[in-house]
Amino acid sequence: MKTEPRSLLLTSEKEAVEELKRIGSDPYGIQSMAPKMAHFNLLLEKIECRAANILKQEMLSIGGDVAVARGSVSCSVDFTDALIIGTRKQVLSLAERLSAQPFGLKEISSNLKKAIANITRDSFGINTPRRSIQIGGRTLIMGILNVTPDSFSDGGRYILPADAVEMALKMEDEGADIIDIGGESSRPGSERISVEEELDRVIPIIEILSGRIAVPISVDSMKAQVAREAVRAGAEIINDISSMQYDPAMPETVSSLDVPVVLMHMRGQPETMQQGDLEYPSLRGEIIGYLRERMEAAAQSGVDPEKIIIDPGFGFGKSLEDNLRLLKYLGEFKILGRPLLVGTSRKAFTARVTGAQDSVRLEGSAAAAAAAVLNGANIIRVHDVGFMKRVALMSDAILRA
User: Fold this and answer.
1) 124-399: CATH, from 1.10.340.30, 3.10.580.10, 3.20.20.20, 3.30.70.1150
2) How many CA atoms lie within 13 A of 396 on its CB side?
3) Does residue 381 have an active-site annotation?
4) pLDDT, mean of residues 303-307
5) Is 46 one of the annotated active-site residues of the chain?
6) Of the listed 88, 228, 347, 361, which one is catalytic?
7) Domain boundaries 13-120, CATH class
8) pLDDT tens, position by position, 207-259
9) Do 350 and 368 meet the contact criterion of CB atoms below 8 Å apart?
10) Residue 57, pLDDT score
């Protein structure tokens, strides 16, 4: 019998364990071999060449490697990026070896352990004032309810409370896990409205819905007073596209309310975010760094880190190519160790790719949603709940096959 090798695509240690069990490996052997089968490429940016040289030598001694700049060995450059290449077992072994080393390597040791823990984490429990939302196992659907006259896709359709309530009930019936209510448009070029106008739009609807729907309500707002009144009316999550930077009172408000918060990446403000220079020297690096900084700032303000959800901000200060790359490499955001929310629904880039009319964005949105699920999204924020629920179910079935 002719035996040819076959390549196995193992995307997680869990899949490695399943393959070892299929072969019939000894349980102790599985425990030993599985950590060697999960491979990681971890990038450290701008570290001292002395530290980089120690990293490389230590990793080489245990069978891995570290890619550094050409001049770092002789220290003809002061700083270099370092790409750590190895299995989970090797990376954790490296972290142990660095724990007592100089040149900032002790901190790198701690960060490497945290990175591995974050990347391999696949479930979260987010506590709201009314319930615990379990994230992981399947993708959650956040239904979009814009009670605005000027949102890019559905502006003006749900201004009347009766229409908004009817739509929310329909989304819940179609399978929404969360209803996200927004009273101020964040489309490119949109202008800010007053606190009073935003309150008038969202609070009556939240008050009605909080007693009529079983799923949690999220309020999409950058204003602390709107967030505070929305939670009093029955909202359980604050979705702040400015990552709590627009309103200086927002961090303390979120902390005192003790509610989950979504932190999103955006360059500038909606009025100007798609104007001027959209170039990123390191797209994912900059966005991940921004979200990490906002998470740390939130924690320093008293926000529970376990109640933070992150959003890369598709369409907010990004080019077409940026949005596509973010979808392709979405899994990199797992390094932050928080649930990942993705909002690509009816965004302009989906129509630009498919060549569809601006008003016909369903196919592109569906493909983007499927890609998001397959690449690590925990929650997808959508307009077409029933349709996207089925897209997510199929994508989840493929992912977890």
Assistant:
1) 3.20.20.20
2) 16
3) yes
4) 98
5) no
6) 347
7) alpha beta
8) 999 989 999 999 999 999 999 999 999 999 999 999 999 999 999 999 999 99
9) yes
10) 96
